[in-house]
Amino acid sequence: MSPETLISAFVTLFVIIDPIGIAPLFLSLTPSHTAVQRRVVALRAVVIAASVLVAFAIGGQWLLEVTGISLPAFRVAGGILLFWISFEMVFEHRNKRKSTTAERAVEDEPHEDIAAVPLAVPLMAGPGAITAVILLAGRSGGGWVELALVVMVIAAALFVTLAILLVAVPIDRLLGNTVRTVVTRLLGVILAALAVQFVADGVRALAS
């Protein structure tokens, strides 16, 4: 994988995970936690999310083969899904949906370990992120070296996510709603362009 491909993969996954958008949800889910307890929750959530995403990165190709779905077809479908996520980010629908999802997960199935549900799944390792890692693993060619690079990209994106969650309180105070909205919209535009590229690659492969 070229450096440009690795950077594109990191940006794709980072934008989909959206740690800047997760940070206020993380704070709202841990209002009575101490700073130490929040660090533990953040670390556990990142480890669980990493385990889920790595599993799909390694086993995603096998899953597609078992279900009879070609990689080009999945690229088109996955690109459309990622484009919808970017649409939600640009028009400020995604954070509302994620907040509602988190609240329902806690209310409908209360967990003592909120690191697993809803922080890790579905906020970090949700359908968009899972789709992205399968697409990235497929783009890499499926070799073990390339898969290792995809795993490194997952680790890097989640490491940055962890770093942001560890300083979520000052970041939330510093950014505020206005700056956070602007950043989310800009990331949404970037994700839209990446999603179109996935669709274009899939259509090109189907047509060849």
From TrEMBL:
<feature type="transmembrane region" description="Helical">
    <location>
        <begin position="149"/>
        <end position="170"/>
    </location>
</feature>
<feature type="transmembrane region" description="Helical">
    <location>
        <begin position="6"/>
        <end position="29"/>
    </location>
</feature>
<dbReference type="InterPro" id="IPR002771">
    <property type="entry name" value="Multi_antbiot-R_MarC"/>
</dbReference>
<feature type="transmembrane region" description="Helical">
    <location>
        <begin position="41"/>
        <end position="63"/>
    </location>
</feature>
<keyword id="KW-0472">Membrane</keyword>
<feature type="transmembrane region" description="Helical">
    <location>
        <begin position="114"/>
        <end position="137"/>
    </location>
</feature>
<protein>
    <recommendedName>
        <fullName>UPF0056 membrane protein</fullName>
    </recommendedName>
</protein>
<keyword id="KW-1003">Cell membrane</keyword>
<dbReference type="GO" id="GO:0005886">
    <property type="term" value="C:plasma membrane"/>
</dbReference>
<dbReference type="Pfam" id="PF01914">
    <property type="entry name" value="MarC"/>
</dbReference>
<feature type="transmembrane region" description="Helical">
    <location>
        <begin position="69"/>
        <end position="91"/>
    </location>
</feature>
<keyword id="KW-0812">Transmembrane</keyword>
<keyword id="KW-1133">Transmembrane helix</keyword>
<feature type="transmembrane region" description="Helical">
    <location>
        <begin position="182"/>
        <end position="200"/>
    </location>
</feature>
<comment type="similarity">
    <text>Belongs to the UPF0056 (MarC) family.</text>
</comment>
